[in-house]
Amino acid sequence: MAKLKSDAEKIFYAGIDAADAEKAVMHNLQIRNQELFVKGRLTLSLRRYERIFITGAGKAAPFMARAAAKIIGKRLTSGIIIGISRHDAVKLPGQINYYKGNHPLPDNASVRATGRLMRLLQTLREEDLVINLITGGGSALLCAPAKGISLNDKIKVTGQLLKSGASISEINAVRKHISAIKGGLFAKHSGKATLITLAISDVIGDFMDVIASGPTAPDPSTFSDCLKIINQYGLTKQVPASVALCLRQGANGFAPETPKANDSAIFTGKYNFVIGSNRTALEGAKSRAIQLGYKTRILSNSLFGTPANNADAIAKLIRTNTRNGCRTCLISGGEMIVRVTGRGKGGRNQQFCLEMAKRIDGMNNVI
What we know:
Blueprint: H1 2-18, H2 21-28, E1 29-32, E2 35-38, E3 42-45, E4 51-57, H3 61-72, E5 76-83, H4 87-90, E6 96-100, H5 108-121, E7 128-134, H6 138-141, H7 151-164, H8 168-177, H9 185-189, E8 194-200, H10 223-232, H11 241-251, H12 264-267, E9 270-276, H13 278-291, E10 295-303, H14 307-324, E11 328-334, H15 348-360
Parallel strand pairs: 4-5, 4-7, 5-6, 7-8, 8-9, 10-11
Antiparallel strand pairs: 1-2, 2-3
């Protein structure tokens, strides 16, 4: 068991290292001969731009910003990054203003930092380039409540949704429609400036409109969708009155929808790239497991449903493999659904680990 534990830790940390946000930026953003290359798919001449800014929000955004600042070098004008890490742990260059917000629920610090970011966006011109960096956690850290909605009301409805069993896509659909910056509105506020967004995905499917609630991506969801979500999870009578009013007014056409894919005036010159994801981590873990001599299988990068059901299925696979005597490593990822009841705190992966612990209890040579 000591050897199994040691190997499991090596495999786990190989997955973490493969999805390292700072390394992902270094691999996907390069400058050569006054040209900027992004993920091998976009080339821009830097001679076009008078100023270059770095912005972003998310749990890993500060580390992405550190890499981007190294690449941009002396061309960097300034920037704003919102994260959850201590500033001295990240050591960003002086041109970048770093602000700490809260997660998974926003707070006043998140609102103040987002206000500063929005004021920066309002100063942008056509001759400007913005490198924007988003990761998981961005939905809470980028917080600018829509008109008529207080921070407390936004916190309340977000908490209700997080505990309801709703998927992250459903939760973020509502977040987008009660926000002044998410759901493509960041792109709108950036005007005619060129905007390149690099994202580390923490959502199944790597959808840009879901990661950090899609601040720079067209939003396919609607106010009507949000009302259905609220109703589906039994929250119609629980959500704050201001949120219910906002969603009803939008659904009835009395408030503008979030920007859609056909809004070319908003999204011309706006580029979105996913540069790291769950799959990146799984492949890194798989590679290390093979090196350690395990017959390795990635079960899925999109586990959904409840932790209990997934634990049942994986425990069955474990029993099959132990009967066959195989030296096996099973790897999976995704985002399951947890409905918080009583005084529970929730936590999708922790709940899954607890469910698995119950099922492998008593099995020999399983970790």
